Structures are given as structure tokens and as C-alpha cells.
UniProtKB/TrEMBL annotation:
It is found in: Cytoplasm. HAMAP family: TrmFO. It catalyses: uridine(54) in tRNA + (6R)-5,10-methylene-5,6,7,8-tetrahydrofolate + NADPH + H(+) = 5-methyluridine(54) in tRNA + (6S)-5,6,7,8-tetrahydrofolate + NADP(+); uridine(54) in tRNA + (6R)-5,10-methylene-5,6,7,8-tetrahydrofolate + NADH + H(+) = 5-methyluridine(54) in tRNA + (6S)-5,6,7,8-tetrahydrofolate + NAD(+). It comes from Parasedimentitalea huanghaiensis. The gene is trmFO. This is Methylenetetrahydrofolate--tRNA-(uracil-5-)-methyltransferase TrmFO.
Length: 447
């Protein structure tokens, strides 16, 4: 092991990249600026810390693209998925985790690995030599962002990512709220009752929307623009798009029956999801917000059951920087102008914990293979991994490139299957069956 792989950033992507490369026999140094250099969103210096939701979304590997990505990462001995499974919380058909022990376990596994060391320093330049992966995520430091901008010759693209509030379970009025997963989804009673639901009447909903629209919001800094990623729209921005938008989004009342009033149909429902194993904390699902703290408290306490809510963390908003990857990166995620550098994770233009970790997994394996002088075939486009990397390294339109979650729209069609909504179930199953075959074949190149 005469050559070392340097990984900048110890989030989902950097942690997964380090794990994959180290397990291939490569010496790895993780450069993590926390806790010496703090960010507004992180609370600890742990690797793999979750700063937004605690959900990895659907775990259905037959009918959901992100569930398929879970399957592929598990098949590749992924650190992030194994740790998520270890600290799993009830969440219906989703995979939610107890965030603090999750990050501690990721940290412990990486720091105890014989091939991995951690340097707690800030990297502010793009090196001219050596093997590097930059996985600095949405909170890339200002100095490094300027270095990237200087190298690429393009202005950094940015959108704003909002964080949902977390509140204490014992401050929720359970005489108004009830426990139920939508459509009673889940294999166990615990899964079928994984979400806490707060119902609203039409009058309560209308008053809530009125309050959202006039609430005081965080101001943007000079020169910044609010280009939100649609998967993380603040609730007040959704309300501004139409009074019914929230009722057809995170506040939709379908698939739920109020156990206190089973004959009364709610006009809208606010859902909360368990945020830790002790079930002492709950986050409000889909309620990212840029309201100022005082306004948040007032408006959120209008929700039935949350009138006396006490908040462990209020919502926030931050700039989220990403590359125009279709123009800047090659198919192995290398910076075209400096091929000794790869980028991975959310900074490449994927969105979500799982997608970020998946790109770290690929970057780690590709970098290790290069160091070890091993040839690796192109990642199969018909896998979830391949669909994502193809999208960010050339499949997307560069002029309109925006962050993307994994979805079946990125997959090549399967011939002979019915299109449209009615054929969706068979079509999705065909996508996932095909993906599992080609991904398993690709992993065989490492055995």
C-alpha cells in the first residue's frame, strides 16, 4: 500500500467511500473539519451525522427505486446501510434510524479500521497530485467552495435545503393525536403504528395556511437566490404555490383513520415520525421551514395535538452547493481538469442520504481500483447505482441540471411492458429484477 487515498468530508458519502476503499486494501485518510470548524447544521464531530431527516425513505426493493438502491448497497457490503439496519426505528415501509447511535457506530467502525485514519483538519485547496475524493456535501466550506469555483471556471450552483423541526414526545397531546402508518403499512404492529398523526378540520387548515403565509421568514443574504429542490420545499413555499398544495403533499389525509373519532374524516393530517429509539423525539414529516424561530413556535402550535409542543430543534435553512456535474465530471466521477480528484455525494447533484452514500460507494471503489491498478467495467446503467451516475455524469441536460433523487424515470425502459399507471407495478418489478442481476454481476468483478 504505497499510495494513500485522501477523502475530504466525513458525511454519508465520505464515510461510505472510505469503508469501501479500505476493505479493498487501500490506505485511507479521512479529512473532516468538524469539530474544529463547525457548521450551523451539525451538532457533533461524528462521522456520518444526520442533519436533516432521520429517514432513508422506502425500503421496498421491488417497487421503489430508493429501496432498490438500499438493496444494491447492502449487496456491496455498504457501511451506511448495515449501520442503518442496526439502528432501525419503526417507520411503516420506510427505513428510519436512531440518528445519534447511528453516527456513533459509523464513527467507531471507521476509526477502528486498520486501513483508515482520520485527520481533523480543513482542506481549502484542490491538490495537484495524489488520489483524492471530495465529498464535502451541501455545507462545503467557503474557502473550498472558492477553490472549486476557481478551478472549474463556473459559478457554483446553489439551492436552499430546509430542516424540519424536532419536538419532545411528552409534549404532544395524545388525546387529539393517534398512532398509525398510512394505509396501516408494515409487517408488525409496531410498523403499522409508526407515525403520529394530528388531524385538522377545514377551518383549522385554512387558519394554519393563513398563518404560514404571513409568518416572518429568514431573509436571504445579498446575491443569494431561493432555488429550492422540490423534494425539500419549505412548507411556507408550498403554501405560497396554492392553498391546497400542502393538503395534497405532506398533509394529505388519505389512508388514515382517527382512532378518537373513527367516523370523522380529517380535512388534513400532520404526520410525525419517531426520531430516536427511545421514542422521546419526533420530527414533523415534510415540514422543512425557513420561518424565524418565534414564528415557527407560534404557527406549529396551531396544529391540533401540538398546542403545548416543546421543541428539541427548530427548523432552519441553509445554502446547498453542487457542481454542474454533467459538464465537469467524467464517467468515473473524476474532475476532467484534475483527474486525480473525484467528487462524491450530494455535491455531485444527487439528493438524499442514500443517494449520497451510493455515490460515495462508487467513488471509493473506483479510486481504490485505480490505485491497485485493477480494471473495472462501467457501472451498469440498468442498476440504480448506474442510473444515478449516468444521470449526473452526462445523462442530464447540463443547462438545466438540478439535484435529483433516484427514481425509475432514470432507468432504461423494459421492452414489451405496458406503459402508464396501470402497468406500473409490473414495470417497476421488471426494473428491480433486471437491476439486481446486472448489479450482482458488476460486484463479481471485485471478488
Amino acid at each position: 500500500m504505497t499510495q494513500t487515498l485522501h477523502i475530504v468530508g466525513g458525511g454519508m458519502a465520505g464515510s461510505e467511500a472510505a469503508w469501501q476503499a479500505a476493505n479493498m486494501g487501500v490506505s485511507v485518510v479521512i479529512h473532516e473539519m468538524r469539530p474544529k470548524v463547525e457548521t450551523f447544521a451539525h451538532q457533533t464531530g461524528n462521522l456520518g451525522e444526520m442533519v436533516c431527516s432521520n429517514s432513508f425513505r422506502s425500503d421496498d426493493d421491488e417497487q421503489n427505486a430508493v429501496g432498490l438502491l438500499h438493496w444494491e448497497m447492502r449487496a456491496a457490503n455498504g457501511l451506511i446501510m448495515a449501520t442503518a439496519d442496526q439502528h432501525r426505528l419503526p417507520a411503516g415501509g420506510a427505513l428510519a434510524v436512531d440518528r445519534e447511535p447511528f453516527a456513533q457506530t459509523v464513527t467507531d467502525k471507521l476509526t477502528s479500521h486498520a486501513n483508515i485514519s482520520v485527520s481533523y483538519d480543513e482542506v481549502t485547496e484542490l491538490p495537484d497530485d495524489g488520489h483524492w475524493i471530495f465529498a464535502t456535501g451541501p455545507l462545503t466550506s467557503s474557502a473550498l467552495g472558492q477553490a472549486i469555483q476557481a478551478e472549474t471556471g463556473a459559478e457554483a450552483l446553489a439551492f436552499f435545503d430546509a430542516i424540519a423541526p424536532i419536538l419532545y414526545a411528552d409534549s404532544i397531546d395524545m388525546s387529539q393525536a393517534w398512532m398509525q402508518s398510512r394505509y396501516d403499512k408494515g409487517e408488525t404492529e409496531e410498523e403499522r403504528t409508526a407515525y403520529l398523526n394530528c388531524p385538522m378540520t377545514k377551518d383549522q387548515y385554512e387558519a394554519f395556511i393563513d398563518a404560514l403565509l404571513v409568518a416572518e421568514k429568514t431573509e436571504f443574504h445579498e446575491g443569494e437566490t431561493a432555488g429550492y429542490f422540490d423534494g425539500c420545499l419549505p412548507i411556507e413555499v408550498m403554501a405560497e404555490r396554492g392553498r391546497e398544495t400542502l393538503r395534497f403533499g405532506p398533509m394529505k389525509p388519505v389512508g388514515l383513520t382517527n382512532s378518537h373519532k373513527p367516523d370523522e374524516k380529517a380535512y388534513a393530517v400532520v404526520q410525525l415520525r419517531r426520531d430516536n429509539k427511545l421514542a422521546t423525539l419526533y420530527n414533523i414529516v415534510g415540514f422543512q421551514t425557513k420561518m424565524k424561530y418565534g414564528a415557527q413556535t407560534r404557527v406549529l402550535r396551531m396544529i391540533p395535538g401540538l398546542q403545548e409542543a416543546q421543541f428539541a430543534r427548530l427548523g432552519g435553512i441553509h445554502r446547498n452547493t453542487f457542481l454542474n456535474s454533467p459538464t465537469l465530471l467524467d464517467q468515473q466521477m473524476r474532475l476532467k481538469s484534475k483527474p486525480n480528484i473525484r467528487f462524491a455525494g450530494q455535491i455531485t447533484g444527487v439528493e438524499g442520504y442514500v443517494e449520497s452514500a451510493a455515490m460515495g460507494l462508487l467513488a471509493g471503489r473506483m479510486a481504490a481500483a485505480e490505485i491497485l491498478d485493477h480494471d473495472i467495467p462501467t457501472v451498469p446503467q440498468n442498476s440504480a447505482m448506474g442510473a444515478l451516475i449516468h444521470h449526473i455524469t452526462g445523462g442530464a441536460e447540463a443547462k438545466t441540471f438540478q439535484p435529483m433523487n433516484v427514481n425509475f424515470g432514470l432507468f432504461q425502459p423494459v421492452e414489451g411492458l405496458k406503459g402508464g399507471r396501470r402497468g406500473r407495478k409490473d414495470r417497476y418489478k421488471a426494473y428491480t429484477d433486471r437491476a439486481k442481476i446486472v448489479w450482482s454481476e458488476w460486484l463479481g468483478n471485485f471478488s
